[in-house]
DNA sequence: GAAATCTTTGAAAACCTTTTCGGGAATAGT
DNA sequence: ACTATTCCCGAAAAGGTTTTCAAAGATTTC
């Protein structure tokens, strides 16, 4: 342990190029007080030794490590966090920055531990990555570097949060159903404890009101599961056999709904059109029929968060809530006359 | 940019405690050449200033950063990588180490870039995280620190790889079906390009041979999708209507198979018992009926990989392939006489 | 031809923490 | 009382890079 590897240091490069470390440093850092010939010699030497500047030593001087801490809350429920993470990592990669990832597993103590661990590693900034678009207590007080919240919203309006636009997504779905001429639209969704569920339901009602249509039955809140989708569908059809569309709070629910409808002898989309939410490929694309659904654009959300983190690192701090719009993905579960080639 | 934050340094702590930095260091590092009273004073001062030792500066001296690089290949197909990652992170967390995560997206150039970036950050070791248990070219030549391969296997026998035991898992499933008295067992699985698919099929045949049973029909290779599961089931029943069990290569396939069987008027598990693979909760537990399946124990696999990485960091380098056993999760799709209260 | 200016280079300082080494003080033993 | 021992503290070094500043060299101007 502690056995240190043979590291190629700037001194080695300088020696090989026959210059001083100072000159070598300047040559490699694109400063212009160095003669072209010398620079070339240094660069060549660096390549020959496959020299990698030691980021750590540099950070002691320049103060930045080109590393951001990414704190997730519940990576095991990874469906949402991963795309955001990927989008973020993408955007970071272009800037030659790296990600230090920690997963707090929804535990406040563990989170504090990780925040300290990341700060000890001199990260330049933090991205707090939520997993359900929910409001949560601000952590910015404990963190002396810029923080951006992604797929969750800080309760401190001075923070910057980038969240998915649930209301907007639901409006897309609702307007799609209305534009198809459906009149008897119902809503089956997940846990009412989730803001996403409430926001989407509210937006649906809003659109229906504007179109002069009723919401058939109450919005049915339950769990985010196929099981609940099946159960709710049976219940709904028992009381309202005349529905012609169901907007579901998630693809998982929609998958259960579709199954139950088939069992009950209704065809999708002819008798009942279905719209899901999340565009979870494995369920949405493999469903019978494939589901029209709302994609949350999570990768873009992650990229947006990173962009704003960079701005903050440059001293340009924004605050408030940015709502990242989703987009409607039309598949057969609403496309009556063959797949609509809309994009 | 480059604006360095006000960092509490050991000097500040020492000053506040009225001792030298050396004494402060010793006091905080639990070395015993410091008077209890002095130590207490230092610790108190450190807490008052909420001092965080600068891990980076320390690493310049001691040579280790307590950070490992985790290089994934395709995080977007996250289903498999995430549990491994979580298990690894868990094991690392206990050792106060951190994870630097990079996702190469299956691109060799990007991978090289990340390896260099991580090396520049002085990571102590690497975990190469695969996503399909496959053999792949060794990267250890380009990496001057210990490397462990997880959920993939290096083609260099000098490397250490920790993979899921596909043959063992398939044996568990096959023996389960045999022990239930099923005699007409078929196999529907995914892409034959995957070693996992071939290994599982081979192990199944092995178990059946040992029990004196035939494999009904050929092993049906296709895609890892519900769609293929449905299609293959229809084909299978057309030629072999008398099957009484199907071992599926994944839960996704099993889900499609189950659906198709129901459509075709067969009951599960009475007429046909089903075993899936992966224990992908969303599909396996929500299926009708819930699926008996093989859990790959991926979290444990990640933890094992980390344990061996630590060993290697301590100079105790192993090599070869470690096969992490899976475990059978029994649910209703094979439990004929009511749910078995096994745990 | 000499002076002034500009370019290029290298020595040394700075960054922050840990560790080593030597000295000083207190305690115990003779 | 004096020496031997133990215990603790402070000064300084080490680690690799960047930056600063002074000096050397080259070029231009008068």
TrEMBL record, chains A, B:
TM annotation in the entry: none
Domain HTH lacI-type: 8-62
Pfam families in the cross-refs: LacI, Peripla_BP_3
GO function terms (MF aspect): DNA binding
Matches recorded under CDD domains: HTH_LacI (cd01392), PBP1_sucrose_transcription_regulator (cd06288)
Gene3D superfamilies: 3.40.50.2300, lambda repressor-like DNA-binding domains (1.10.260.40)
Keywords, sorted A to Z: DNA-binding, Transcription, Transcription regulation
PROSITE patterns attached to this UniProt entry: HTH_LACI_1 (PS00356), HTH_LACI_2 (PS50932)
Protein name: LacI family DNA-binding transcriptional regulator
Organism encoding this protein: Paractinoplanes globisporus
């Amino acid at each position: 342990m502690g056995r240190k590897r043979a590291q190629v240091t700037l001194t080695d490069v300088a020696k090989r190029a026959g210059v001083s470390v100072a000159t070598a440093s300047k040559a490699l850092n694109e400063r212009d007080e160095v003669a072209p010939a010398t620079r070339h010699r240094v660069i060549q030497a660096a390549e020959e030794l496959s020299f990698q500047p030691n980021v750590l030593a540099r950070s002691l001087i320049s103060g930045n490590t080109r590393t951001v801490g990414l704190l997730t809350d519940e990576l095991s429920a990874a469906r949402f966090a991963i795309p955001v993470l990927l989008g973020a990592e993408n955007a970071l990669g272009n800037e030659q920055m790296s990600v230090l990832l920690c997963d707090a597993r929804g535990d406040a103590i563990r989170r504090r531990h990780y925040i300290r661990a990341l700060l000890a590693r001199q990260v330049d900034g933090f991205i707090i990555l939520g997993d359900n678009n929910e409001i949560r207590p601000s952590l910015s007080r404990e963190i002396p570097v810029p923080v951006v919240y992604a797929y969750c919203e800080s309760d401190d309006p001075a923070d910057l949060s980038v969240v998915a636009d649930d209301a907007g997504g639901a409006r897309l779905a609702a307007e799609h159903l209305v534009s198809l001429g459906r009149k008897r639209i119902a809503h089956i969704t997940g846990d009412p404890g989730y803001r996403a569920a409430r926001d989407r339901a509210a937006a649906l009602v809003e659109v229906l009101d504007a179109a002069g249509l009723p919401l058939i039955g109450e919005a049915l809140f339950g769990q985010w599961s196929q099981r609940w989708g099946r159960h709710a569908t049976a219940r709904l059809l028992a009381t309202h056999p005349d529905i012609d569309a169901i907007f579901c709070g998630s693809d998982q629910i929609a998958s259960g709904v579709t199954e139950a409808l088939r069992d009950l002898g209704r065809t999708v989309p002819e008798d009942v059109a279905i719209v899901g939410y999340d565009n979870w490929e494995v369920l949405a694309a493999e469903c019978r029929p494939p589901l029209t659904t709302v994609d949350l654009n999570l990768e873009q959300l992650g990229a947006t968060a990173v962009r704003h983190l960079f701005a903050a690192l440059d001293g340009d701090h924004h605050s408030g809530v940015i709502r990242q719009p989703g987009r409607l993905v039309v598949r057969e579960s609403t496309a009556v006359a063959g797949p609509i080639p809309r994009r």
